[in-house]
Amino acid sequence: MNGAWKSKPIIYRRKGFLDYATELGVAIFFVTNRTANLEEATKNNLEDLGFVFKEKRDQLLIKGRKKLGL
Q1: Burial label, 28 (beta-carbon count in 10 A; 0-12, 13-18, 19+)
Q2: Is the alpha carbon torsion for 33, 34, 40, 42 positive or negative?
Q3: Alpha-carbon distance 62 to 66, whole Å?
Q4: What does pTM read for this prediction?
Q5: Residues 33-69: pLDDT tens digits?
Q6: What is d(CA 69, CA 3) in angstroms, rounded to the nearest whole number?
Q7: Where is pLDDT greater, at 8 or 53?
Q8: What are the Cα distances from residue 18, in Å, to 22, 37, 44?
Protein backbone atom coordinates (compact mmCIF):
# COMPACT_ATOMS: atom_id res chain seq x y z
CA MET A 1 0.00 0.00 0.00
CA ASN A 2 1.39 3.39 -0.91
CA GLY A 3 1.23 6.44 1.34
CA ALA A 4 -1.45 8.21 -0.73
CA TRP A 5 -4.16 7.07 1.69
CA LYS A 6 -2.63 9.09 4.49
CA SER A 7 -3.99 12.32 3.09
CA LYS A 8 -7.35 11.20 1.66
CA PRO A 9 -10.10 13.22 3.39
CA ILE A 10 -13.58 12.03 4.21
CA ILE A 11 -16.62 13.57 2.56
CA TYR A 12 -17.02 17.01 4.14
CA ARG A 13 -20.83 16.99 4.20
CA ARG A 14 -20.79 14.27 6.84
CA LYS A 15 -19.34 16.63 9.46
CA GLY A 16 -22.63 18.49 9.99
CA PHE A 17 -24.52 15.24 10.43
CA LEU A 18 -21.96 13.92 12.91
CA ASP A 19 -21.99 17.20 14.85
CA TYR A 20 -25.78 17.00 15.09
CA ALA A 21 -25.66 13.37 16.24
CA THR A 22 -23.05 14.28 18.87
CA GLU A 23 -25.32 17.06 20.17
CA LEU A 24 -28.04 14.43 20.62
CA GLY A 25 -25.65 12.29 22.69
CA VAL A 26 -24.83 9.72 20.02
CA ALA A 27 -21.37 8.14 20.37
CA ILE A 28 -19.51 8.46 17.07
CA PHE A 29 -17.12 5.75 15.88
CA PHE A 30 -15.03 5.80 12.73
CA VAL A 31 -14.49 2.46 10.99
CA THR A 32 -11.75 2.20 8.38
CA ASN A 33 -10.05 -0.47 6.34
CA ARG A 34 -6.75 1.34 6.74
CA THR A 35 -4.05 -0.65 8.48
CA ALA A 36 -2.80 -0.01 12.01
CA ASN A 37 0.38 1.71 10.78
CA LEU A 38 -1.86 4.49 9.35
CA GLU A 39 -3.88 4.97 12.54
CA GLU A 40 -2.17 8.17 13.66
CA ALA A 41 -2.34 9.72 10.17
CA THR A 42 -6.03 8.77 9.92
CA LYS A 43 -6.81 10.28 13.31
CA ASN A 44 -4.87 13.44 12.39
CA ASN A 45 -6.86 13.76 9.14
CA LEU A 46 -10.13 13.57 11.06
CA GLU A 47 -8.95 16.07 13.68
CA ASP A 48 -7.81 18.46 10.93
CA LEU A 49 -11.39 18.36 9.61
CA GLY A 50 -12.69 19.34 13.04
CA PHE A 51 -13.70 16.01 14.51
CA VAL A 52 -13.05 15.73 18.23
CA PHE A 53 -12.06 12.44 19.83
CA LYS A 54 -13.07 11.74 23.44
CA GLU A 55 -10.05 11.03 25.64
CA LYS A 56 -11.37 7.88 27.29
CA ARG A 57 -13.03 6.28 24.27
CA ASP A 58 -11.43 4.54 21.31
CA GLN A 59 -13.50 5.90 18.45
CA LEU A 60 -11.28 4.87 15.55
CA LEU A 61 -11.68 1.21 14.63
CA ILE A 62 -8.85 0.23 12.32
CA LYS A 63 -7.85 -2.92 10.45
CA GLY A 64 -5.39 -5.19 12.24
CA ARG A 65 -5.80 -3.77 15.74
CA LYS A 66 -7.59 -6.03 18.19
CA LYS A 67 -7.89 -3.80 21.27
CA LEU A 68 -11.18 -1.94 21.66
CA GLY A 69 -11.35 0.46 24.57
CA LEU A 70 -14.78 1.92 25.25
Answers
A1: middle
A2: negative
A3: 9
A4: 0.65
A5: 888 888 888 888 888 888 888 776 678 888 877 665 5
A6: 27
A7: 53
A8: 6, 26, 17
